[in-house]
Amino acid sequence: MSIFIQNITAVNADGIQKNVDILIEGERITEMGMGLARNAARVIDGAGLTAFPGFLEMHCHLRDPGLVHKEDIVTGTRAAAAGGYTAVCCMPNTKPVTDSAEVVRYIIEKAKKSGFAEVLPVAAVTRGMRGEELTDFAGLLKAGAVAFSDDGMPVAEDEIILAAMRRAKELHALLMLHEEDLAKRGNGVVHDGENARKAGIAGIPRAIEETMTARDIFYAEKLGVPIHICHVSTAGSVELVRRAKANGVPVTCETGPHYFSITDEKILDRNPNAKVNPPLREKEDMLAVRQGIADGTIDVIATDHAPHSEEEKAREIEDAPFGMIGFETALPLTVTNLLCPGIIGLTDIARLLSKRPHELLGIAGGELKKNVCADITICDTNEKFVYNKDMIASKAKNSPFLGMELRGRVCYTIRKGKFTYDRQAD
Ligand SMILES: NC(=O)N[C@@H](CC(=O)O)C(=O)O
Ligand SMILES: [Zn+2]
Ligand SMILES: [Zn+2]
């Protein structure tokens, strides 16, 4: 099928082209420029809309295999496509853990057959994510893993993280690190601050994230190995990464939309949907995260989409699992809380949600131009809407943003020249 997108604002990380036409034939963008001849099976009027290179999610949980009461590859990628994502990296805390070539192949094959986005599996660093023995990095890469992480758990032992870094360096593989000193977390469930005390909920201090972040930056510098820090949430973590980058340490990092949009005030009413790990922090942290995004300290916005069933999230906040869904609110929260207040511009959205994730993973894409694969996210950055449950494509509904008015919506997602999301047709 051919698609003609007429008169749209096309945004790349390095610039904006207004009033351009984009012709898609087969899987590729075959023409891009002003005043092209309109000749295609499907025509999209792009007036007032913005086209970005397809978003790449670096960090999400699809829960498949084994935890499909929360989400599966079909529902998860459907939600990803509705959020503008053409590709997603899924974390290995599945059942069984994604620590073997068989599970990696299962994920890739199921996604190919029935998914709405490219799925790029992240394999476990240690067998069973138990933090004891390294997995077969070479075999997992060969099977199609794109990076390594024990996300959900830190790699606690120094000898093990050092061995993982040495192996990653040999194989040019990326380590994505969940930074948390579990031994010290105790029974904490929300950020350790005034609001936790008011609500009478046990807290998780910032230091639990920051000490592990500092340890891993220290080792990455010593060994000269690139590491990527997952879900940075505190002002201190942002500062650690900023200083490390200034000193030439090969460290990159991501944050989630919730860390630049809301604070731990959201837990005052004990809402289990506001329980996430690392926890929602205080205003000064939220502002530091925004600043880190603006000055390039934070490379990537990754949602950490972490679906849980309604039954699991109906428990008391102490007993409900950590995590919130994120695909379908990522662009709206970015537009509402970063673009509208002028903290970032449109080109930064292309960089944070597409270009940088492609670069960090060493995957082609992240650019809109002639002759590249037609992975395109088309948005209305002015549309306002109230986010409600009926809109959610994910199997899970655990979002703290329900009922909020947001600005910026995905209209269409095109992957390899085919619509994977079309709001008009929904
Ligand atoms: N972020 C979360 O609160 N939960 C994640 C695990 C993780 O990302 O650490 C999950 O798998 O549910
Ligand atoms: Zn994590
Ligand atoms: Zn995660």
TrEMBL record:
Keyword rRNA-binding: no
EC top class, as a word: hydrolase
PANTHER family on file: ALLANTOINASE (PTHR43668)
Sequence positions that bind Zn(2+) 1: 59, 61, 151, 304
UniProt xrefs under InterPro entries: DHOase, DHOase/Allantoinase_Hydrolase, DHOase_cat, Dihydroorotase_CS, Metal-dep_hydrolase_composite, Metal_Hydrolase
Species for this entry: Christensenella tenuis
Cofactor(s) annotated in UniProt: Zn(2+)
Name of this chain's protein: Dihydroorotase
Catalytic activity: (S)-dihydroorotate + H2O = N-carbamoyl-L-aspartate + H(+)
Protein family: Belongs to the metallo-dependent hydrolases superfamily. DHOase family. Class I DHOase subfamily.
Superkingdom per UniProt: Bacteria
Cofactor binding mode and count: Binds 2 Zn(2+) ions per subunit.
Keyword Nuclease: no
